[in-house]
Amino acid sequence: MEWSNWSGSQQHQAERLITPATIDELAALLALARSENKVVRTIGSAHSFVPFWTDDYLVSLDGMRGLITHDSAAGTARFHAGTKLHELGEPLWQVGLSMENMGDIDRQSVAGAISTGTHGTGPTLRSVSNQIVAVQLLTAAGEIREIDESEPELLAAARVSLGSLGIITAVTLEGVPSYWLHERNWQASVEECEAQLESLIHSNRHWEFFWDPQSDLCAMKTLNPCDEPKAHGAEGEQLKDLAEGEFIGRNYEILPSSRELRFNEMEFSVPASEGWPCFMAIREMIRDRYPKLRWPVEYRTLKADETLIGTPSGRETVTISVHEGANRAFEPLFSDCEAIFRQYQGRPHWGKVHSHQATDFEQLYPRFDRFREIRQHFDPEGRFLNPHLRSIFGID
Ligand SMILES: Cc1cc2nc3c(=O)[nH]c(=O)nc-3n(C[C@H](O)[C@H](O)[C@H](O)COP(=O)(O)OP(=O)(O)OC[C@H]3O[C@@H](n4cnc5c(N)ncnc54)[C@H](O)[C@@H]3O)c2cc1C
């Protein structure tokens, strides 16, 4: 079965590519893999840029999607793990809930998004992984295991686990009361951006910018909660009041963008206080060595969390992302950027290009060893390990 990820950088000729509709079908596949000693890797929406997958058995959870149940009093909703992020907004809204935040797009599956620590921007806002209060796992031994807040350390591990603890079959999301967002877009020079940096970060729910290496300008974007527009849906009054580059909508309509052009991406999380100096070092290097680069550098903020290996674990964070077109060689650019990120204690996004290995992660995450122990306990035979994960965890 031929298969490739979103950007086309990962190609596989998988022995089996299976889309089960039930947990029983999934368990049967896992039993077969055990008997044939095959590696099993799960695909969400294949939007990661790293070699997470395998030529043995690939499992897609596209057949296991949708709302299972909700609890209005607790403010939670349980979804099948293959549900795409763009399928969460409407059912959550119907019960008065919304996601606290999401990233630039909404095409990922909820299990794939949490497994790599997918995030948006906002210094008070958590990654998607932290919006989960329970996960249901099918373990390597074929057991169904529910992990929730009664086991905080296990939940902290399951929130960002790279598909290494088991196959996630359902997740319980903790929503926030549903909200409308007002989006503003404008351009600023790098100097203007720096002068307003702290105020932009702290006086907006969401703020980010994309620096364009060609114009040396920053495309700024803020999103803030607002009232429901009076004429929403009537195509008139409200829209007339909005300036160019402004939009109002339900949060799940405003938060994601569409990405038509394909690219590859590297992203590192650095301590918040190092964000600006790190960005300036990347900018200087790109202007010096890659003056023709046409893809932007993105700058976002992220609240500290308590996951074991989530990139903002234990520290307030700035994330910096570098892009290159999918049809172009990205290795020299990304390698030069990675050298700079290393100087700022950068932690690579788990789903984006990097060359870090176990010895690097041991330095970057105080509880990396604890995560490895938990992984070993859940999957002692390495059923869910491929060469990329073995290199991350330092397993021969
Ligand atoms: C255009 C684009 C925009 C992006 N924007 C952002 C952004 O704004 N912020 C950000 O943080 N990231 C962003 N990303 C990265 C992306 O969110 C992550 O790579 C995410 O993991 C992709 O989700 P997915 O469903 O495609 O998972 P996949 O890429 O398919 O899988 C990711 C990992 O999750 C595991 N997995 C998937 N499903 C399961 C399951 N059911 N059980 C166990 N493990 C599972 C996989 O095995 C793999 O290890 C972007 C990527 C693209 C291509």
Task: Give a written overview of the molecule.
With 396 residues, the chain is α+β, with helices and mostly antiparallel strands. It has helices at 23-36, 89-94, 110-115, 152-159, 190-195, 197-202, 237-241, 251-254, 275-289, 331-343, 358-364, 368-378, 387-393, and strands at residues 2-4, 11-13, 16-18, 40-43, 57-60, 67-71, 76-80, 97-98, 132-138, 144-148, 167-174, 176-177, 180-189, 206-212, 217-226, 246-250, 263-271, 297-302, 317-325, 347-348. Helix 9 packs antiparallel against helix 10. The protein is globular, with a radius of gyration of 21 Å. Bound molecules: flavin-adenine dinucleotide. The site of flavin-adenine dinucleotide has 31 residues, from strand 4, helix 3 and strand 11.
Task: Set out the fold topology.
Blueprint: E1 2-4, E2 11-13, E3 16-18, H1 23-36, E4 40-43, E5 57-60, E6 67-71, E7 76-80, H2 89-94, E8 97-98, H3 110-115, E9 132-138, E10 144-148, H4 152-159, E11 167-174, E12 176-177, E13 180-189, H5 190-195, H6 197-202, E14 206-212, E15 217-226, H7 237-241, E16 246-250, H8 251-254, E17 263-271, H9 275-289, E18 297-302, E19 317-325, H10 331-343, E20 347-348, H11 358-364, H12 368-378, H13 387-393
Parallel strand pairs: 3-5, 4-5
Antiparallel strand pairs: 1-2, 6-7, 7-11, 8-12, 9-10, 9-11, 13-15, 13-16, 14-15, 14-18, 17-19, 17-20, 18-19
Helix pairs in contact: 9-10
The structure holds flavin-adenine dinucleotide (FAD).
Residues 6, 41-48, 52, 61, 81, 103-105, 108-109, 111-113, 115-116, 118-119, 162-163, 167-168, 259, 349, 351 line the site of flavin-adenine dinucleotide.
